[in-house]
Amino acid sequence: MSRPRLTSLRRLVPAFLIGLSVLLAPALVMAVDDPSEMLPDPKQESRAEAIGSQLRCLVCQNESIEDSSAGLARDLRRVVREHVAKGETNKQIMDWMVDRYGNFIRLSPPLSVGTLLLWSMPVLALLLGLTLAFFAYRRRAAAPAAPPPLSDEEKARLAKLTKD
């Protein structure tokens, strides 16, 4: 009777380990590479992390500099912490980064004509395609069918015209 209980326990161990690794993975990803990067003041450190979470890693391009372990992200984290330690405001730090790297450095860029055009382009392309398909269908439907056969009178007139 202890055999079935042991077998079911063996089946649960891999599931438990997978579940544990899924739960611990986010904590490992959010870790700073080097503890010496951190600021001694916890308030300044949390502010630097908040700013860093809004900045895009230029290597990974889909992660913030706080989440990335790329060398450039590490350098940008250090720069952000230097500016925070100097006492600059969040806006000043973001403006410095945007001046240096452009709006691409922001994970969520500000709303502008360019971003509106970028986000609306798929919808505009779909509308253009549907419009072209509509007019092509309409033109094909409006095209005349094969002409009706000639009547006897028209055949006689055609024969007379071709004789002359």
Report on this model:
The chain has 6 helices and no strands. The protein has 164 residues and is mainly alpha-helical. Among the domains are: 32-105, Helicase, Ruva Protein, domain 3 (Orthogonal Bundle); 112-143. The protein is elongated. 66% of the residues lie in helices and 0% in strands. Helix 2 (42-52) packs across helix 3 (71-86). Residues 145-164 are annotated as: Disordered. One of its GO terms (molecular function) is metal ion binding. Required for the biogenesis of c-type cytochromes. Possible subunit of a heme lyase. It comes from Acetobacter tropicalis. It holds the Pfam family CcmH.
Average pLDDT taken over every residue: 82
User: Share of helix among residues?
Assistant: 55-70%
Report the sheet with the most strands, covering strand number, pairing sense and barrel closure. none
CATH superfamily of the domain at 32-105: Cytochrome C biogenesis protein
Strand content bin: under 5%
Protein name: Cytochrome c-type biogenesis protein
Organism: Acetobacter tropicalis
Main location: membrane
Transmembrane segments: 116-137
Describe this structure in a few short sentences:
It contains six helices and no strands. It is mostly helical. The longest helix is centred in the last third of the chain and has 30 residues, at 113-142.
